[in-house]
Amino acid sequence: MHKRHPPSPGAQRCPSPLPGLYLFVSTSLYVVANFFWGWLAERSRLPFALIAPCLLFSSLGLLLLAPSPLLGLEPSKWLLGLGLSVEEVFFGGAFTPCYKVMLDASIARGLDDSLTTQAFVSSMLQTMYTMGVAVGPVSGGALIDAYGFPVMTTVLAFITMVVGLLVTVKAFVRHGCCRDAALAASNNCAPWKRRWNYESIGVKS
């Protein structure tokens, strides 16, 4: 006679719809906010000034997710939703201007300002992003298994914050170089354009 095993306690519980709701809301906010970030990045004379604060706010959202042990807050559904939403919204603001920064740097180093260069830069950006998507769950899962979810989000927030501070320094440095040339600001501070601006006003770079 076949012996029927009792169902496990986990199998008796219906899955909560909250994770799906969190993902739906945060992803929707990311999509809507990206229209604004794209508009702002296109008009920004200093993309680093947009990337830096978005990285810092994104790190704050990561700290709220678990929440981080450093905050001394009790875990809650609302805190998880708030942290996920903040992280998603400001991640878009940090990621969207990266294409323009990479394109300017590539042309400054000698690549042609052509559709081929744009396609090359776009493919490289997406390749790096996809590598992060592949490596992130593996490294994050290892941290969760070893130390728990709150520690993992804290480490990720710390890394994001450090990068945000480095980009802040870069923004101040680039702002100083823009201020040196009278016409550089109108040309987004691209180095090859800045060189032309110096020559146009009779100053050797």
Mean model confidence by pLDDT: 81
Estimated structural class: mainly alpha
Uncertain regions: pLDDT < 50 for 5+ in a row?
1-14, 190-205
Number of strands: 0
Order of helices and strands: HHHHHHH
Question: In CATH's first tier, which class applies?
Answer: Mainly Alpha
CATH architecture: Up-down Bundle
What is the number of domains? Answer: 1
Radius of gyration: 22 Å
- CATH topology-level fold name: Growth Hormone, Chain: A
CATH superfamily: MFS general substrate transporter like domains
Give a concise summary.
This protein is an all-alpha fold and 205 residues long.
Description of the structure:
This is MFS-type transporter SLC18B1. It is found in: Membrane. It is a multi-pass membrane protein. GO terms for molecular function: transmembrane transporter activity. The chain is mostly helical and 205 residues long. The protein has a single domain, classed as Up-down Bundle (Growth Hormone, Chain: A), CATH 1.20.1250. 73% of the residues lie in helices and 0% in strands. It contains seven helices and no strands. It has helices at residues 18-43, 47-65, 77-95, 98-108, 115-147, 149-180, 191-200. Helix 2 (47-65) runs antiparallel to helix 3 (77-95) and helix 5 runs antiparallel to helix 6 (149-180). The longest helix has 33 residues, at 115-147. The protein is globular. Residues 1-14 and 190-205 have low confidence and may be disordered.
